[in-house]
Design goal:
It contains three helices and two strands, in the order H-E-E-H-H. By secondary structure, it is an alpha+beta fold. It has a two-stranded antiparallel ribbon. A hairpin with a 2-residue loop joins strand 1 and strand 2. Helix 1 packs across helix 2. The C terminus is likely disordered.
Length: 78
């Protein structure tokens, strides 16, 4: 059932595909690429900022403790 949680699915893909291109976007006339690893890092930064601003609490962002999606501190941006 844990695999059906969106945060878990995204974290697994970021780990699984690492340096592969996750998305492309156009900036001016140039196409830019973001890897799965970079996407995971950006998600961590946004989550940390939301917590710091008081918009959400860690309980809303925390994943099951058996999963360490970003390779560090148990799903809390570490």
């Amino acid at each position: 059932m844990e695999d059906r949680h969106l945060a878990v699915m995204i974290a697994k893909r970021c780990r699984q595909y690492g340096d592969r291109v996750a998305m492309r976007y156009k900036s001016g006339e140039t196409w830019q690429e973001i890897t799965y690893r970079e996407l995971g890092e950006q998600i961590q930064h946004v989550a940390a900022a939301l917590v710091k601003m008081g918009a959400v609490s860690y309980t809303h962002l925390t994943l099951p403790t058996t999963i360490k999606p970003w390779g560090g501190g148990g799903g809390r941006g570490g």
